[in-house]
Design goal:
Layout: H1 3-39, H2 46-82, H3 85-91, H4 96-139, H5 141-144, E1 157-160, E2 163-165, E3 171-179, E4 188-198, E5 205-218, H6 226-231, E6 234-247, H7 249-252, H8 270-298, H9 326-375, H10 377-392, H11 399-423, H12 429-452, H13 460-489
Antiparallel strand pairs: 1-3, 2-3, 3-4, 4-5, 5-6
């Protein structure tokens, strides 16, 4: 390795390592801040918290690496230009391409490292952290309760509510509870306008205080048939306040390192995603086929056949209903309307199921393409940061930091925007995953070309030069014509 290459690499690696670890620390602290309330004061050991931080570090490292490359490339090239080291190298016959060649190879190497990290380390860390979160929630059931859907983590109960609020997030709105403790199905249903969670640390019970609600219980004997159950009495009570004590002692014995979830899209490597996707797509296609077949059978569609004119009964009216009397017309229309309403209701119910299945399939598909696209972010952002640094000719942490944040925010939001569109099936998975690359690649090419041609970031004269030339040509033609006219007159 030549002395120049060692000097360029040293100038790049020192700010890169500094910025990488600073950004990594900020991202880890941000992730920790979001779950701090769920970890602090919950009886969780220091070892578990440190493991959680370690897995978080592994998860956010692929995000910190491109930011570090972008910022350090702007700082390095900006500092070299600011100190006239590029000018000295050019006067010695060394081109810009030759000077940045070792950093280009390093950026390619870092992109490879990022790909390996995303393919092997990131899925492992996601698996460990997600299962740890689930197990921590089981130890603290109040944390596990999420608004909007039925919560099934608490034994023998299914709890649903619209909103969780309050200083300690222990107040609930519009609560619905299915009491399954009798092991006879959801025969006990409790609803309330408000609720409050009361639980002490270390207690084996979680207390729910419900206010302004209704209690419904359907009574039946063991071994009774469905018809007998329909005839049995039910209890219905309005209450102003009702207290439920739920035994959660069985959750305390859970192991925080237990791994229950292993097949989510962000827990699989590329090879595992490639093996999983065909099966998921087959199941999705089979689901659509079964829904279409059920729809076809529900509306009693029959095949239409063409008859010769000799077999057509010409006494029948082309309008089918005109061939029946009034009572039969009513029955036909009533039956058609009921079948149509039933079909519409089935389609509405199946619509959400179909949408959820498509969304899950899209998540796996997006993850497969995004792993490759995001691993190239180090190389892409380098070809934006390096020429930008040589153009602005500013080192340090001031202007380079502002530019790096602006560029990465554009890259990150375009990547997130593309993934969200692909998740909702507005874009294909490959287009949504590579959208940020498609947006940033022209910028990288433009900046690289302008830097190699030693042009500024914005050359205003180049925009107005054609206009100036056309005006000059116009006036010069008029002047020549005027001179010719004067010559002819003389």
């Amino acid at each position: 390795m030549k002395t120049l290459d060692r000097y360029i690499l040293k100038s790049f690696l020192i700010p890169f390592l500094a910025t990488f670890f600073i950004i990594l620390f900020v991202l880890v602290m941000q992730a920790l801040w979001l779950v701090f309330d769920n970890l602090a004061g919950k009886g969780i050991s220091v070892e578990i918290v440190l493991k959680f931080l370690w897995y978080t570090t592994l998860i956010v490292a692929p995000q910190a690496l491109p930011i570090g490359v972008l910022l350090s490339s702007i700082m390095t090239l900006g500092s070299l230009s600011e100190n006239y080291e590029f000018a000295a190298a050019k006067s010695a016959g060394v081109s810009l391409q030759r000077m940045v060649r070792p950093i280009v190879f390093l950026a390619i190497f870092l992109s490879g490292i990022n790909f390996l990290f995303l393919n092997y380390v990131y899925p492992y860390a996601m698996l460990k952290q997600l299962n740890m979160k689930v197990n921590i929630k089981k130890k603290q059931p109040a944390i596990a309760l999420v608004a909007g859907g039925f919560n099934t983590e608490i034994p023998n109960f299914q709890i649903k509510f619209k909103e969780k609020y309050g200083e300690n997030d222990n107040l609930l709105k519009e609560v619905m509870i299915y009491d399954l403790s009798s092991k006879k199905g959801n025969n006990v249903i409790i609803t309330a306008k408000e609720g409050e969670i009361l639980s002490e640390e270390g207690s084996r019970y979680m207390t729910l205080v419900l206010k302004n609600g209704h209690y419904f219980e359907h009574h039946f004997k063991n071994g009774s048939t469905f018809k007998e159950r329909q005839k049995m009495p039910a209890s219905y009570v309005d209450f102003e306040e009702y207290t439920i004590n739920i035994d959660i002692s069985s959750l305390d014995s859970g192991d925080l390192t237990e791994e229950k979830y292993k097949t989510q899209y962000n827990m699989l490597s590329l090879a595992q995603l490639r093996d999983t996707l065909p099966t998921m797509k087959q199941n999705y296609d089979a689901f659509i086929s079964s829904r279409a077949k059920n729809l076809f059978l529900s509306i009693d569609i029959e095949d239409l056949h063409q008859y010769p004119d000799s077999l057509i009964n010409k006494k029948l009216s082309p309008n089918i209903l005109d061939n029946f009397d009034l009572s039969e017309k009513r029955n036909i229309v009533s039956t058609a309307i009921s079948k149509l309403e039933r079909t519409i209701n089935n389609n509405v119910q199946n619509k959400n199921s179909l949408k959820d299945k498509r969304k899950i399939l899209n998540l796996y598909d997006i993850e497969f393409y995004n792993r490759v696209a995001f691993s190239l972010s180090c190389l892409l952002l380098f070809f934006i940061g390096a020429p930008l640094g040589s153009i602005i000719r500013k080192g340090g942490m001031g202007l380079p930091m502002i530019l790096a944040i602006g560029i990465y925010v554009l890259y990150f939001f375009s990547n997130t925007f593309g993934r969200n569109l692909a998740e909702e099936s507005s874009l294909t998975a490959i287009t949504g995953s590579w959208l940020s690359v498609f947006i940033m690649l022209p910028l990288a090419i433009t900046l690289t070309v302008r830097a190699t041609q030693d042009k500024g970031l914005f050359d205003i004269n180049s925009f107005f030069a054609p206009v100036k030339n056309s005006i000059k040509n116009l006036f010069s033609k008029k002047r020549k014509q005027h001179n010719n006219d004067n010559t002819n007159t003389n």
